[in-house]
């Protein structure tokens, strides 16, 4: 008997003997046993909560936000050129950070 | 468009999306339950319990899946570990030896249907050969992938597949084409 023919025959029978097993509620039983899913808004709620708490702390520690008024007066008394330079530098820095984050996301997806 | 395993895994990890996990289970339940049925010598209830345990472990440990191997290979490894742990508890890990194989195979008492004979023949193989045959010949894993699942050297997998095949051919000689 041809050995290769016999092996091919056996392999084919073995593959055929792996019939599809119907789910018959198996998936539902597994999902039922999973721990309760975190609500989707849970993470957002934590972030907003932390932001609010941090803002309140900053407000209280800064004497009712008085430093904002002081800094606003200082900014108004600066020469216009100096204010423009600060604005441009900040814009470039923020754009750079955003671009780096975007590139990083694209690279991860690929 | 149906999502692939990597997308479904990402959804489970990021959003804890149970629907995505259910899709993963649906996609792989047949293969995992089939593998475990073979390993447990067709004990359907035990195989399904182990399959359920497998998927619960997958959910719990999904963060450790790094995507270096195929998801299905990682899944089979967990299924095999579940089986092995259970077998250790039941002390059934010892395979059937050659003498027992010869003694149990009596062509007179075996059902004439080929399918039944093949199932019988598979159940008679020692565990290490049966596992290798089921993973490589039935589930289509490469020898390398099967070695990863079974945590044994590549050469051992090849030997086990070869020996298992020889025994199956011997048992099923009456069915083989002339």
Instruction: List the helices and strands of chain A in order.
Output: HHHHH
Question: Approximately what portion of the residues of chain B adopt beta-strand conformation?
Answer: under 5%
- Helix percentage of chain A: over 70%
Give the C-alpha Rg of chain A: 32 Å
How much helicity do the residues of chain B have?
A: over 70%
Largest sheet of chain A: none
SSE-based structural type of chain A: mainly alpha
Oligomer: heterodimer
Number of helices of chain B: 9
Helix/strand/pairing category of chain B: mainly alpha
- What is the overall shape of chain A? elongated
Strand % of chain A is under 5%
Kindly report the greatest chain-chain contact and the residue count on each side.
A-B, 28 and 37 residues
Query: How many angstroms separate the termini of chain A?
Result: 51 Å
Task: Give the uncertain stretches of chain A in residue-range form.
Answer: none
The CATH architecture of the largest domain in chain B can be given as Orthogonal Bundle
Task: Provide keyphrases for this structure.
heterodimer, A: 110 residues, mainly alpha, 75% helix, B: 178 residues, Rna Polymerase Sigma Factor, Chain: A, Arc Repressor Mutant, subunit A, 2 domains, 0% strand, elongated
């Amino acid at each position: 008997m041809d050995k290769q023919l016999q092996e091919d025959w056996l392999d084919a029978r073995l593959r055929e003997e792996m019939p599809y097993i119907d789910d018959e509620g198996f998936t539902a039983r597994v999902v039922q046993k999973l721990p309760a899913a975190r609500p989707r808004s849970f993470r957002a709620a934590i972030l907003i909560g932390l932001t609010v708490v941090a803002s309140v702390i900053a407000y209280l520690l800064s004497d009712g936000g008085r430093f904002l008024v002081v800094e606003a007066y200082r900014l108004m008394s600066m020469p216009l050129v100096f204010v423009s330079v600060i604005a441009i530098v900040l814009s470039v820095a923020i754009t750079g950070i955003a671009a780096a984050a975007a590139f990083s996301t694209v690279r991860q997806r690929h | 468009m149906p999502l692939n395993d990597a997308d479904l895994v990402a959804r489970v990890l990021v959003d804890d999306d149970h629907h995505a996990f259910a899709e993963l289970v649906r996609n792989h339940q047949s293969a995992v339950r089939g593998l475990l049925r073979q390993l447990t010598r067709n004990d359907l209830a035990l195989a399904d319990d182990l399959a359920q345990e497998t998927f619960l472990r997958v959910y719990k440990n999904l963060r450790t899946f790094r995507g270096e191997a195929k998801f299905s290979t990682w899944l089979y490894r967990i299924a095999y570990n579940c089986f092995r742990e259970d077998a250790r508890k039941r002390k059934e890990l010892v395979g059937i030896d050659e003498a027992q194989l010869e003694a149990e195979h009596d062509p007179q008492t075996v059902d004439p249907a080929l399918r039944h004979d093949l199932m019988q023949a598979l159940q008679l193989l020692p565990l290490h050969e049966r596992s290798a045959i089921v993973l490589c010949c039935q589930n289509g894993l490469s020898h390398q992938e099967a070695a990863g699942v079974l945590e044994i050297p590549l050469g051992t997998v090849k030997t086990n597949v070869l020996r298992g095949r020889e025994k199956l051919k011997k048992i099923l000689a009456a069915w083989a084409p002339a």
